[in-house]
Queue: 2 jobs
Job 1
Amino acid sequence: MPPNFGDHEQKPNDSTSLEMREDSEKRIGRNPHPDFAKVQASRPDWRQEESWHFTKTANPDWKFGHGASDSGKSLEKRHVEIDPYEDGSRATPGKKTGVLAIVEGVRFWAREDALNDDRNLIDPAVLKPMSRLGGIMYGRTTEGCELPRPDYEEKTRSGETEGLIKAKLDGQ
């Protein structure tokens, strides 16, 4: 049986690197629970029966420039700045504590039973995606909505982008 991924593409585990990452996690201290097992035991059980389904968007009439789709409720809340370099923060100056990676996938694998007939969409009900939300928190995606991608030229002709597009300033 051929391997799922080419052996030449697999990198051997580097135990030194793994140990360094584990030590780094302990130093950063993202786990907010001194007794995680106790906290975990107090939570509801994982719902195996939860299944993927579509919903409407929060505001089907939303347009460009309308902001968050919450009728302005988020603007009623107090917002605070989080500066990782302020005195007393856990950040180490000069040390990377977060990473943004923008990647164009040009070669990847997907379960055959998760693909549509045209092989251009993956069924989330089969994929059952998870996401890292930050720290030790993860999310399970069980519902989604669809927002068609706009035709920029059409939106510009109709005037919907009026006031939203601003010229670049010097140095941008």
Job 2
Amino acid sequence: MAPMLRALLIVVGFLSISSFAVPSPFLPTDVSAALTSQRSLQVEIGRSLSKQAALYFPGQPEFENLTTQWADNIDPTFFVTVEVGTEEDVATTVKFARKYNIDFLAVSRGHGLTKSLSTLKNGIQINLRQLQEITVAPNGKTATLGGGVYTESLLNALHAKGKSSGTFDGIALRVLN
């Protein structure tokens, strides 16, 4: 994985976990009504996102699809889902959330099993599903992945380059020769 992408994923992962896992007396627990209105969000953050990005709000079918968790006992709540289209959209959304002290969570499929995810209430979901890029380095020793890459896509891309990997994807252990 490229150092820049690795650093971005580590930072996004750290910020998403740290922003809601440890309560702070300096952060508000509720987002102001002004920020949670669809119009203000579309103006405030929507104009800064790429054309590939989208905002989804409660009541919209896509919002419900993107915020449904795999495990019933994991129940974070969101007032908006930002489906990012570029790495820059991730950075823009994180900056927005930090500016207003809003908790956020970057997700790909919604398979998180950590019960502390349920402590996130009224936050921003950063959906990474469009970030599907897979680049295998010319020497074949590393691969750079977008945050929304699924295991099957990665294994297929590696196999197409004559590379292999072992993984447990919840269904079976697969090793490509």
